[in-house]
């Protein structure tokens, strides 16, 4: 399989954008007191996200690429805002945002795959967002006790949450079955 002219042109265009963005990152880092390493990393995440979005939307159209694109773009934007000191918290405190970004990236991936929001994507998305939110509460020390104490005292809540997820999945599958049976008749 040979490379076509439009594919080579797209690759050159993406490589040019990559060089422009990396140059802007280094320029920003050299003109201010911003960490060049963090700025470079943020641009790298953004560029990987943009490249993955390109593959997701034009070439392959797979949901996993859209998930990765959304995740990398959100992570790159967060690192960029953190490097510019707009978001004044360190990465050590905000690491649970990775779970939140994963949850937020699942929604468009599910939409891309099915053309609508489906529980198979939305339930894990909401679970990741809630998990990230809970971990952020402990990371910022908003509550007076630690995560270990929380797990030791509140472990039965995890069974309740898992039960709710299973019930919702069962109800949504019954709804889909009824719709498919109605379409057959």
| Structural class assignment | mainly alpha
Number of DSSP helical runs: 8
Rg value: 21 Å
The amount of helix comes to over 70%
The major β-sheet equals: none
What would the principal axes of the Cα set say about the shape? Answer: flat
Strand tally is: 0
The low-confidence parts are none
Mean pLDDT: 79
Q: Assess the beta-strand content as a share of residues.
A: under 5%
Distance between the termini: 46 Å
Q: Helix and strand string, N-terminal first?
A: HHHHHHHH
Q: How many distinct folded domains?
A: 2
Brief summary of the model shown:
With 185 residues, the protein is an all-alpha fold. It has two domains: 15-88; 92-169, no CATH class. Helices cover 82% and strands 0% of the residues.
Question: Would you spell out the secondary-structure blueprint of this structure?
Answer:
Blueprint: H1 5-31, H2 36-59, H3 63-83, H4 91-94, H5 97-114, H6 119-139, H7 147-154, H8 156-184
Describe what you observe in this structure.
The structure is a single chain. With 185 residues, the chain is an all-alpha fold. It folds into two domains: 15-88; 92-169, no CATH class. The chain contains eight helices and no strands. Helix 3 (63-83) packs antiparallel against helix 5 (97-114) and helix 5 packs antiparallel against helix 6 (119-139). The radius of gyration is 21 Å and the shape is flat. The chain starts with a helix and ends with a helix.
């Amino acid at each position: 399989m040979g490379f076509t002219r439009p594919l080579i042109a797209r690759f050159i265009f993406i490589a040019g954008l990559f060089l422009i963005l990396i140059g802007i990152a280094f320029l920003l880092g050299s003109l201010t007191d911003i960490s060049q390493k963090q700025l470079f990393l943020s641009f790298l995440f953004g560029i990987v996200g943009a490249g993955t979005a390109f593959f997701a939307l034009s070439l392959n159209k797979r949901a996993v690429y859209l998930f990765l694109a959304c995740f990398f773009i959100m992570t790159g934007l967060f690192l960029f805002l953190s490097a510019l000191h707009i978001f004044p918290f360190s990465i050590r405190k905000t690491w649970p945002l990775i779970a939140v970004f994963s949850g937020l990236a699942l929604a468009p991936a599910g939409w891309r795959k099915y053309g609508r929001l489906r529980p198979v994507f939305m339930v894990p998305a909401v679970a990741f967002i809630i998990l990230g939110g809970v971990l952020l509460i402990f990371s910022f020390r908003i509550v007076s006790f630690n995560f270990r104490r929380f797990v030791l005292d509140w472990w039965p809540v995890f069974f309740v949450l898992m039960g709710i997820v299973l019930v919702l999945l069962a109800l949504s599958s019954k709804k889909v079955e009824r719709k498919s049976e109605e379409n057959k008749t």
